Amino acid sequence: MNIKKLSKPVVYLLLIIWTILVTYPLIYMFITSVKSHGEILRNPFGLPEQLKLSNYVTALTDYAMGSALLNSIMVTVGSLVILIFVAAMAGYAVAKKAFPGNKIFFITMVAFIAIPIHALVVPVYYFIENLGLTNNLFAIMIIYAAFHLPISILIMRSFFETVPNAVEEAARIDGCSEFKTFWYIALPMTKVGMATVAIINVITIWSEYMFASVLLTRPESRTLPVAVGAVSSGNSGFDHGIFFASLGIATIPMLIIYFVFSKQITKGVASGAVK
Questions:
Q1: 226 near 209, Cβ under 8 Å?
Q2: Radius of gyration over alpha carbons of the chain, in Å?
Q3: Rounded to whole angstroms, how far apart are CA atoms 54 and 62?
Q4: Fewer CB under 10 Å: which end of the chain, C or N?
């Protein structure tokens, strides 16, 4: 018996089972989000008798999910811009410049990865409160970028190490300053690295709840995870349909990003794994 021929059906079967396990929660969430509260209680696993799209409208208006969606987009995009820019500069310095403490800096970045981020909630809260920056979206962007810097710097460092020194030397001979060499020569050659940093961090930043719930307490400054958590405390009581609709609102943007940039995501993850 050919073991290779026998293994193919087994692999396909396992992939089918894995696909079902991954997609079923999403399908269940979207189906439940268009059912009424009473119907969910009566028949939680059945198809909706009538589509109740008003759950999404109610979540966007009465529970301020619309403003929370905009806040999450601003925070995620802003955090990634800050993160990629700072990680690129630091990664370039570590990869290309022999400065005192280079190796110590590298080891420190590796050590920081092992620190549990949420163990720092209390000191970060007091620090931000003393600065008067609670309910400030820019402050939360800085925090998210700072917490994701160690792994991002290491990723960018590995990509900058692949940039030929001869190219940079030629740029300097032509009169480029250090920053122009970095900005116009080295950085464009590491687009895959920047994409990898964005891909690895986007979901974590988008779905972060702990710091957002502590630092963004006003309804108008909430991000989506905090707004979803607040749905259960509405004045009209807990409505399962509206709650699942709010989960759908929080999930749809990430699904759109995945389907639009699926090829880039695959390349970025593969490159990051190799690096």
A1: yes
A2: 23
A3: 11
A4: N
Please give the model's pTM, rounded to 2 decimal places: 0.85
Confidence of residue 6 (pLDDT cuts 50, 70, 90): low
pLDDT digits (tens, 9 = 90+) for 244-263: 999 999 999 988 888 877 77
Q: How far apart are alpha carbons 147 and 140 in whole angstroms?
A: 11
| Residues 6 or more apart in contact with residue 84 via CB below 8 angstroms | 152, 194, 197, 198
What is the helix (H) or strand (E) element at residue 267, kind and residue range? Answer: helix 262-274
Q: Residue for token digits 């709010």?
A: 246
Q: How far apart are the first and last CA of the chain?
A: 39
* Residue type at 186 in one-letter notation: A
Q: In this structure, are residues 63 and 242 in contact, taking their beta carbons and an 8 Å threshold?
A: yes
Contact between 163 and 189 (Cβ < 8 Å): yes
Selection from 96, 78, 191 nearest residue 141 by Cα:
78
> What does 9-69 look like in DSSP terms, one character per residue?
HHHHHHHHHHHHHHHHHHHHHHHHTTS-HHHHHH-TTSPPSS--THHHHHHHHTT-HHHHH
Query: What amino acid is encoded at 271 in this protein?
Result: S
Taking residue 185's Cβ as centre, other Cβ atoms within 10 Å add up to 17
Dihedral Cα 193, 212, 260, 14, nearest 10 deg = 90
Q: Go through the domains of the chain in sequence order and give each one's CATH number.
A: 63-233+255-274 (1.10.3720.10)
Buried b (16+ CB within 10 A) or exposed e, 232-269: eeeeeeebbbbbbbbbbbbbebeeebeeebeebbeebe
CA 69, CA 223: separation in Å to the nearest integer?
Answer: 7
For the ranges 93-102, 115-124, 171-180, 220-229, the one whose mean pLDDT is highest: 220-229
